[in-house]
Specification:
24 helices
Length: about 600
Amino acid sequence: MHPRLIEVTERLRQRSRVSRAAYLQQMAEAAARPRGRRDLSCSNLAHGMAACPAGDKQLLRLPDEVNVGMVSAYNDMLSAHQPYEDFPEQIRQALRAIGATGQVAGGVPAMCDGITQGEPGMELSLVSRDVIAMGTAIALSHNMFDAALCLGICDKIVPGLLMGALRFGYLPVLFVPAGPMPSGLSNSAKAEVRQRYAEGLASREELLDAESSAYHAPGTCTFYGTANTNQLLLEAMGLQLPGASFINPGTPLRDALTVAAAEQAASLARAGQGSMASILDERALINALVMLLATGGSTNLTLHLVAIGQCAGLQLNWDDMSLLSEVVPTLARIYPNGQADVNHFQAAGGSAWLFRQLLEAGLLHEEVNTILGPGLQQYTREPWLEQGRLVWRDGPTASLDESILRGHARPFRADGGLRVMQGNLGRGVIKVSAVSPEHWQVAAPCRIFDSQQALMQAFDNNELQGDLIAVVRFQGPAANGMPELHKLTPYLGILQDRGQRVALVTDGRMSGASGKVPAVIHVSPEAQAGGPLARLRDGDWLELDARSGTLQVRVPDAEWQARTPARSSEPVRRGWGRELFAFARQQASSAEQGASCFTESLIQADGGEA
C-alpha cells in the first residue's frame, strides 16, 4: 500500500481510539440483547405485524426468521427517488421467495437542492441531513428487524441515512440505489444557456426548455454532483453491491440488483455476519475519501464524511483529506470536471475500472469487510445478466474512453485537486479540479455581501467591475443553515469570461456541481461566530493562492485587531419553516467538524475529542 495511505489511516485510528472503542462497545452491548422480535412482548409484536398479510404474520411469529426493515426516502418530486415507489413491494416479494419478510420501517424526508437553489427552502437543506439521521434512528428503534435496507441517493439523504443507521451498527445495513436517468441535453450546453440567461441574452422559455431537456426522466441527475458522488463512496465503503450505482431505472438489470440486495441482507442476518460496524471502520472511511479525491467529487462530502465518521466513533478531519489529496491522482473526468456524464462514465469502465486502478496503485485498503464478505477486490467486477440471471464478471482491464477514465500510470492530474486553505481569514476548502490553473491565484480587493441575492443585485446593477474577490458571509451552519450558493456560478463565470480576475470566499457551501471559478468555501470559524470574515470591509486586499493553500487579507495588524466584527445585515430567518430549525442552528458544529447538530453529544457519549 502507498505509505501515505498507511500514514493517514494510522493517524485516524490513533486519533479515534477512545471514541471508536466506545462506539464498538455500544454496538456489542446492543448485539448481545435479543433483537428482531425475540424480546418483544406479545402486545408489542401484535402491533408490529397487525397490518401484514397472513403469510407474513406466520413468519413474523417465528423469532428466528429474518425480517428486513426498509428506510425509504421515496417521494415522486425528486427524479432520483421516484423509482423507489415500487421498491418496497419488489423487496417484499424477493424476501418472501426465500422465506423472509420485509417491512417499511419508516420514511425520511428528501428535499431536492435543484429545486431549492436560491430559494428560502435551501436554508433547510443541510440540516435535513441530521433530520434524516434522526428519522432513520426512529424507524429502526422498533426492534422488529434483523437487517436494514436504506433506499436513498441524493445530496443529504445518503449521509443522513448513514449517520442514523450507524447507531444501529450491530445490524447488517445495505444501500439500494435506483440509478441515473438516461442522458439528455449535455451539461456543458445547459451551463451555456444558464450563463446567457444571467446576461439577459436568453429568454426564460429557452432556459426552461434547456433545463427540461437536461432533467427529463426518472433517475438521478447525470452530472457528477453530490448524489452521484455518494453512490461511488457507498461502493468504496463496501455498503452497496459492486457496480450497482449507475444502472438506469426500470431496466431488468436494475430490478435484479434490487432483488440481490434484499437477498444479501437476509443472508447476512441469518448468518449473523456483515454488521455495519464491522464494515465501516477507519479503513472503509479512508477508502471513501480516496474515491472522492480520485474522481473530483463533490465538496459537500468534506462536511459529510466528517459527520458520518463521528457517528461511527471516527474523528476524520480536513488535514487527512489534504494529505491524501497530495498523492491520490485524478482518474476520472465527469462534469463539472469534464464533459462526460455518469452514463458515459459507466460505459467507459465505471466503478469497476476505478477500483482496479486504485487497488493496483496501493491507494485503497483491500483487506476490508464488505456486504459481500472480505475483500475489496470484489468491486473490480461488474453486474451482468446472463440468461436472465444476475452474475458478476470481471470489469474492463483498459479504459474504453481515455477522455473520461485513465489509469493510475497516466492520470489526468497527479493529485486529487482538493486543497485546505488557511491563513488569517481562517480555514476552508477549495476544489481546483475544474478550475484552470491560470485562475488558481487571485489577488484583488474584496467586495462584501451578506447574501447571494445581494451579489446578484450588484451584478444586475453593473457594480462588479475590475478584479475582485466576492466574499459572501453569514452563510455558515449557525447563521442560516449553510445553504448552497450555486446560483452565483453563472454570474461569477460571466465576470471571469470578461477577463476579470474573480474568486469567491464564503463560509457557506457551493453545489457539488460547482466549477470553473475558484471558490474557497466552508470557511471556519464562520462570520456568525465572530470569525475573521466578519472583520472584512469592502476594498480590503485579499490574496488567494490555491497552489500554496493560503488565504490572506493584507490589513495592518493593529487596524485588524481594532475592528469590531460586523453583524449580518440580513433579517432573522422566518417563513418556509425556517424558524422551526433555530435549535439546530444553535447546536450546529463548525463546517470543519461536519456542521452537525450531533457533534457535541457524540463526543460526550463516546469520550472522543472535538
